[in-house]
Design brief:
Two copies of one chain form a homodimer.
Chain A (H helix, E strand, L loop, with lengths): L2 E2 L2 H17 L6 E6 L4 H17 L2 E6 L5 H10 L5 E4 L6 H8 L13 H8 L17 H12 L5 H4 L10 E5 L6 H10 L3 E5 L5 E4 L2 E4 L4 H7 L2 E4 L19 E4 L8 H6 L2 E3 L3 H20 L2
Parallel strand pairs in A: 1-11, 2-3, 2-4, 5-6, 5-9, 9-10, 10-11
Antiparallel strand pairs in A: 6-7, 7-8
Helix pairs in contact in A: 1-11, 2-11, 6-8, 6-11
């Protein structure tokens, strides 16, 4: 029988801790959400953010802006001393221009961790703001949410074994998706934690390890045969759903796409199945809001 | 009868000036090209760069690197005091990861002007490195090449009229392409020079002016009827070629795509036709190399 992990329950444990941290901060924390699109999932994600904010005691202000006003609005929030974090609901224009917008967010208010300042630190495995600083870097919300869900699934061995090696040493993970928002940062983070990551995307397969990225000609079949962990985020209905015959019976499977990437039999064969990530993603955005405040905005 | 402008001839005038400037610099200037792909146009573009370097007295070193070594190689050139500029031949991975690579180039060696440091200055119309600095900012090569070709075509009125207004005041331009590499920076640069720019792309039309970007529902037909300048860069063979009936008889037309975007009759109807931009693009990369040296590397 497959164990299903509900991300809302995992999120709740984090939120309890965040509530206590927010309560201990005298300054009223505020997160500003910028919503330019009427695209359904973005509006839903904004309402999830609002709930999570209410739940943890952070003020949330949702501003609906014209897409062409987005850049000006980001700059206004960057300059606003009462705002501690900015959340932007993508997609707005498309990959290229949205990428430009991501980089207009001040790293000090970038709760999504998607600006090049934080991404560069991530890919270089620089875990602190500076050498010898105790201030931790910001990691992008969705990859971080996935790692925390794997922790909750008991996959990582950090708690019992951190003295002997990195938490994912010896583990093989297959990740379907290599976007700069989730798949590639996630693969890099897993590799930094000791895993061997088999990364699939329309650009072909790559292997991520502590040695960096390498080319490979490994097939999907061979990759899945080796993987104790399978992470999917393919928003394409033409993607051939992962079948039960492809995965191991001890596999931990997690899907962060808004559509189904595993067929029902595969879900039932998996040892642990995590059907979605959303509630943890917004929780990580709040965790980042507090971290940014502690790093940059508190006296 | 249409006047055809050969970009090689325009480039030659610039190269004569660049040769003189290079000859006056004691330090041997060096540009490093990084080529990861066997994609035809990239290799061709690299050989054009080499010719332009030989022609102006700048040393050119072409390094063939595995795509996964690209990031490390960029960092090595960033750190190399003997190298004054980096030229990367895209596409390598795809829009998202290539965009990440663009941002790994030090702004002080970014002869293509595509790092977010320079792009941000461009979009804000900040023409100097700092307020009150006389050091000019770097502009991306292809948009700059197009502007210089329009100058050469006598379109801008900078030389006769700079006291009375911006050089493209009163002009309407249609641009087909809104990539972050050419179309959008070009539209912004033209608008900063006083033009009204009608920008078409799969994301729909937008208007760029001194007021910024605005939404519009202008049709292609209406846009072309109003435009004295038409710039195309559509690499898609499904693009409906621009017909003679669509353009004005006083139109200046310029195509920077590697494929045909105007049909033959349109080419013949245009007052001035500029069939390609390539030779000017590499010339602008050399101009940027010298500017970066003067701004950052000379004593």
């Amino acid at each position: 029988v497959t164990k299903i992990i509900d991300p809302s329950q995992v999120a709740e444990a984090f939120r309890a801790e965040l509530r206590a941290r927010v309560a201990a901060i005298e300054t009223p924390l505020k997160l500003v959400g910028l919503l330019a699109t009427d695209f359904g999932p973005s509006a839903t994600y904004a309402s999830y953010t609002e709930k999570a904010c209410v739940d943890t005691g952070v003020a949330f202000e949702l501003r609906r802006v014209q897409r062409l006003e987005m850049e000006r609005e980001i700059e206004a929030v960057n300059q606003d001393p009462m705002a501690h974090g900015i959340m932007i609901y993508y997609p707005i224009f498309g990959v290229e221009l949205d990428n430009y917008l991501k980089d207009q967010v001040s790293p000090q208010k970038d709760v999504e961790g998607l600006s090049s300042y934080w991404m560069k630190k991530l890919y270089r495995d620089e875990r602190f703001i500076q050498d010898r600083s105790s201030k931790k870097a910001i990691l992008p919300c969705t990859p971080l949410a996935i790692i925390k869900l794997l922790d909750a699934a008991g996959v990582t061995v950090a708690s019992v074994n951190s003295a002997t090696g990195p938490p994912l040493e010896g583990k093989t993970v297959t990740v379907f998706n290599r976007s700069e928002v989730v798949g590639r940062p996630l693969a890099a983070m897993l590799a930094h934690d000791g895993a061997r990551v088999l990364s699939f995307d329309i650009g072909g397969p790559l292997v991520f390890s502590s040695q960096g990225m390498e080319e490979t000609n490994l097939s999907r079949r061979a990759a899945l045969e080796q993987s104790e962990l399978v992470v999917t985020g393919v928003p394409d209905r033409n993607f051939a759903l992962i079948q039960a015959s492809e995965i191991r019976s001890d596999a931990v499977c997690i899907n962060f796409s808004t559509i189904k990437n595993f067929d029902d039999a595969a879900r039932e064969k998996a040892r642990i199945f995590i059907p979605r990530v959303g509630p943890m993603t917004v929780t990580m955005a709040l965790r980042n809001t507090i971290r940014l405040f502690e790093n940059f905005h508190s006296r």
